[in-house]
Amino acid sequence: MGNRLIQIRPILFALGLMVCLMALAMTLPAALDLADGSPTWRAFAVSSLFSLFVGVLMMMFAYEQRTSRVGIREGFLLTASCWALLSAFAALPFLGIGLPYTDAYFETMSGLTTTGSTVITKLDGQPRGILLWRALLQGIGGLGIIVVAILILPFLRIGGMQLFQTESSDRSEKVVPRAFELVAAISGVFGFLTLACTIVYMLLGMTPFDAICHALATISTGGFSTHDDSFGFFASPALDWTAAFFMMSGALPFVVYIKFLRGDRSALWRDTQVRGFIMFILVVCLIMATWLSLVRGSTFGESLRDATFNVVSVVTTTGFANEDYGQWGPFAVGIFFLLMFVGGCSGSTTGGIKIYRLQVASLLTRSHLLHLISPSRIVTLMYNGRRLPDDVPFSVVAFLAIYMATIGIFTVILAAMGLDLVTALSSATTAMSNVGPGLGEIVGPAGNFAGLPPGAKWVLSFAMLLGRLELFTVLVLFRPEFWRS
Q: Which domain holds residue 476?
């Protein structure tokens, strides 16, 4: 088969369309600030008009009457360029509150990748339009992440995502007939969860504005709050438990939700990822609750609430905090550092390594040990009731190796910029895993990165992008079969 040139025009047209949609989204916070009498509405209005102008120009330049052949290569390149370009335009409104463009881009990349790290201080005094824009960025990014993880990444056959490619084929026949309907179903589930979360937050005492912003950040597992103290501002055990429940909801595979809603009532518990994720959360929460009750002398119920909220927040890469878990002692700090790597399920809004990769790695370890004990024994690797494809084990191991090596590289770069080891290592880890908060005095559980030098913010912005692209997808560019038609 011959090679086919990549179609650039459809990619530019799609990017221009998304820039236009982003410009239209800016009108919501502009209207809110205008109603509040805040002058920052002008920043949104100007940014919206400029983005709309550029987006329309891109669409006009790329438009062609004939239908172009668009394949997975174009989809991948569109995905890879989408976050970088949209962040460049979505950052413009932040200039209206005096942020330099470096900080504005960092904040926007953190929002769209649902990382949750921030450089904005005194959130309680910021215009509501800015706070709403941050929440909208996470909602937009969270929904886009799910769509990409389900429709694009499995076909790239990297990092073990090919494990779900058979399910992708099944989805076209058994769950929804076409990709458009799948996207519509995912959007419906995302919207329903966000609405439900908003209503429950309001019933438990949040203002409507706080409820909307925190619901968008919760379901997208993003973690942007409207207050400097994050969830600690509300000091409500009921809200803490509710947030933990909805953070876990955003960390589950959305395709499983669709199967459940279409009549397969056992879909959630039958999924190996879901079972492993829930059991992991339960075990870690019980360990942390026991530790807290011994160290602080608090009741087990209070310790369980604090442990559950913060463990779920970090594992799901949301990044909310109801208190400074850096003060829980060295054991707790070490546990939370390791939890930054975990992540939720594939096909969810979370970042990190993902539960299924850790499960596959454990299967490989068990297989290797059994082979050492009995060299002649043949071990068949099974996952989710199916035999693992031959290329999945190597793909998962390669992903884990490159993932850890990349964090090491970013740590060295940040240390060379003058950051201490704890700050450099935790910043690199939280950016690659899209968690949000780090460790130490500069980037602690509040996740505020304002004290970092500009160069470090650009490095971390790039790390967030790599993490959101599942990192290994970048190497697809160097695989000959990817460029082959």
A: 113-485
The tokens of 341 are what?
Answer: 């790597």
Question: Which range, of 23-27, 402-406, 443-447, averages the lowest pLDDT?
Answer: 443-447
Count structural domains, the chain.
Answer: 1
**Residues making up the chain, counted from first to last:** 485
Q: Which two tokens stand for residue 120?
A: 């904005």
Q: Is beta strand 386-387 parallel, antiparallel or unpaired with respect to 382-383? A: antiparallel
The encoded tokens of residue 150 equal 């389900």
Q: Indicate the range of 130-144, 255-269, 277-291 predicted with least confidence.
A: 255-269
d(CA 179, CA 475): 26
Q: Predicted confidence band at 322 (pLDDT cuts at 50, 70, 90)?
A: confident
**Domain-embedded: residue 95:** no
Structure token digits, residue 280: 């992991």
- Dihedral angle of Cα 85, 89, 95, 99, to the nearest 10 degrees: -20
Q: Does 8 reside within a domain?
A: no
Distance CA 66, CA 68 (A): 6
pLDDT in tens, 69-109: 556 667 777 777 888 899 999 999 999 888 999 999 999 99
Instruction: Give me the numbers of helices (H) and strands (E) for the chain, helices first please.
Output: 21, 2
Q: Do 423 and 442 meet the contact criterion of CB atoms below 8 Å apart?
A: yes
DSSP helix/strand/coil, 457 = helix
Give dist(CA 361, CA 135) in Å, integer.
35
Whether residue 68 is contained in a domain is answered as no
Q: What is the b/e burial string over 89-117, where b = at least 16 CB atoms within 10 angstroms of the residue's CB?
A: bbbbbbbbbebeebbbbbbbbbbbbbbbb
pLDDT tops 80 at residue 65 = no
84 lies in some domain: no
Q: Take residue 357 and report the two structure tokens written for it.
A: 């990769």
Q: Are 309 and 237 in contact (CB under 8 A)?
A: no
In this prediction the pTM is 0.88
Neighbours of 125 (CB within 10 A): 7
DSSP 388: P
User: Can you name the residues that pair with 448 across neighbouring β-strands?
Assistant: 118
Q: Which of 3-7, 57-61, 325-329, 424-428 has the lowest mean pLDDT?
A: 3-7
Q: What is the pLDDT of residue 346?
A: 86
